[in-house]
Amino acid sequence: MKNEIKAIIFDVGGVLQLKNPSFEHPHVHSFVAKKLKIGLDQYFDSIDTTYAKSIEGKISEEKALEIMSRNLKTTPKRLKRIYLEAYKRYYSLNSKLLKFEFKIKKQGYKTAILSDQWWLSEKALFPRSFYGKFNATISSCNVGLRKPDPKIYKFVLKKLHVLPKEAVFIDNQKWNITPARKLGMRTILFKDNNQTIRELKKLLK
Q1: For 50-79, how does the pLDDT look when each residue is reduced to its tens digit (9 = 90+)?
Q2: What is the CATH number of domain 2-16+94-204?
Q3: Where exactly are the structural domains of the chain?
Q4: Angle 76-90/61-71 helices, nearest 10 degrees?
Q5: What is the DSSP string of 45-83?
Q6: pTM over 0.85
Q7: Could you report the per-residue pLDDT of 93-136, keeping only the tens digit for each?
Q8: Strand, helix or coil at 148?
């Protein structure tokens, strides 16, 4: 294998799950705020600290929903339902890239997911089928680390039993690519499927 590459690591939101073009809102949060009939500033003020802690797994799903629903003046059950609806409607599975992932895995490469998620986005964006398609599935809320902390990249490398130079990391955000590259990983900034698959094929030749 060229450049000793043994593993390909994918982000989820914006890579394996893409925005559904029919979704009428710019992001999930604006959908939730509208459903709750409050302004975005008030919404973000209400979830800020709790949401951030939840992404790092520093607070449980139940506690996060309890605090956020109280601040947003709704019930945990209703808030959870709105979030899950938002994620389901906002994202669409990137079937083309998933098919390519399955193909390269059959060729002998290890594949993994490395993604920043909180409890509800993970429920919506990590279908059970993912767990059988990848050698490792790492979500920030489950491991207590998040990108761009170098520790989370080291964590997935350890899970895959590969060195940084043996891995390719694919993400749609430059600030998540930078620490991976500094560790010695090959990186691809996802822009679209054709560009990403083309770059990945070059690395794997």
Answers
A1: 999 999 999 999 999 999 999 999 999 999
A2: 3.40.50.1000
A3: 2-16+94-204, 28-91
A4: 100
A5: HHHHHHHHHHHTTSS-HHHHHHHHHHHTTS-HHHHHHHH
A6: yes
A7: 999 999 999 999 999 999 999 999 999 999 999 888 788 899 99
A8: coil
